[in-house]
Design brief:
Helices cover 28% and strands 34% of the residues. By secondary structure, it is an alpha+beta fold.
């Protein structure tokens, strides 16, 4: 799976060991790996707005009323892939599978306007190809300490006691435990002394459609000596990201490819900025892509043996939003 890109990962290692800043972007299947130095970003039509790096200028306020319409597939259509996933879970082939869908949307906003006016921890606009506004960190590396923040579980914040309901929901809790366990194991491949620092904390996500609560945890470790300064090798070891794949990884990937019936592309891949010292990277979710002049929003959630069809269908639809307020 990774052999074709081995050279690019080596190039990332080289740049990070030489302390040269760069941006990288890797698709879900780790088939496409692209690396850019800072001076190459704008010529490639890449706009980035991270907490540790931004190459954007401040924009004037948006002076038009947002029009936004989404056309989710029917419950029956969603059910086909959902049933395939749950059958595999019942057979013991997977205990958590992230099932995602592709929804046509119509809006009067351009990808560039969505990029500039969304509020999110991580935002990227790639040419006239896609935009995302992700709340989810993949890994951070600060002074050889590596941290990851799996985000699993969302709920409509307007519901009564929403945060508590989310924290105590049996299905969401099981899903969260599974992802924390998976990422703790993944991190152990590149780090020592891996531990869960914070478990199940709640983030508030404000959007024009509705406000959401999301549940995250923090896991950290110290980069193993043989991986120090090697951003490429670390990424090659950790990808695809467990939080948007499931567990166990290889078999779950097969199930996803059978169940979804569309190409995720860069959606649920990862991208990151290495500033010469430290790294910040994110999972590319909350993702809008342009295909033949039509926009599509890709969204989904984790399925376990406890998942209910209607709930998962609602969660997939809940995530179709722009965080413009």
């Amino acid at each position: 799976m990774f052999s074709a890109n081995h050279q690019i990962f080596l190039k990332m290692d080289e740049l990070s060991q030489q302390k040269v800043p760069f941006f990288f972007i890797i698709d879900f299947l780790v088939d496409k790996v692209e690396v850019f130095r800072e001076n190459e970003l704008s010529e490639k039509g890449l706009l980035i707005d991270f907490q540790i790096f931004s190459n954007t200028n401040k924009q004037e306020a948006l002076h038009k009323k947002t029009e936004w319409e989404s056309y989710p597939e029917t419950l029956e259509s969603f059910k086909k892939g959902f049933d395939h996933v749950q059958n595999n879970i019942r057979l013991g082939n997977s205990y958590l599978t992230n099932y995602t869908r592709k929804t046509r949307i119509d809006t009067n906003l351009s990808l560039e306007e969505i990029f500039h006016h969304s509020h999110a921890k991580y935002k990227v606009l790639y040419k006239d190809f896609f935009v995302f506004f992700s709340p989810e960190t993949f890994v951070k590396i600060v002074d050889d300490k590596i941290l990851t923040y799996p985000m699993k579980g969302t709920i409509d914040a307007s519901l009564e006691n929403a945060a508590e309901v989310l924290k105590n929901d049996t299905k969401e809790k099981a899903e969260h435990y599974t992802v924390v366990d998976l990422l703790r194991n993944d991190l152990s491949m590149v780090a020592d002394d891996v531990k869960v620092d914070k478990f199940q904390f709640i983030d508030f996500l404000k959007t024009r459609q509705k406000d959401l609560f999301a549940m995250s945890s923090e896991i950290s470790g110290h980069v193993k000596p043989e991986f120090k300064g090697k951003v490429g090798s670390i990424m090659q070891k950790l990808l695809p990201a467990g939080s948007i794949l499931g567990a166990p990884k290889p078999k779950t990937l097969e199930i996803i490819l059978e169940a979804e019936g569309f190409d995720r592309g860069f959606y649920t891949g990862v991208c990151g900025w290495f500033d010469g010292e430290n790294l910040d990277s994110c999972v590319m979710i909350r993702f809008i892509e342009k295909e033949n002049n039509q926009l599509y929003f890709k969204s989904g959630g984790g399925i376990t043996h406890m998942s209910k069809l209607e709930d998962e269908y609602e969660e997939m639809k809940n995530k179709i939003y722009v965080p413009i307020h």
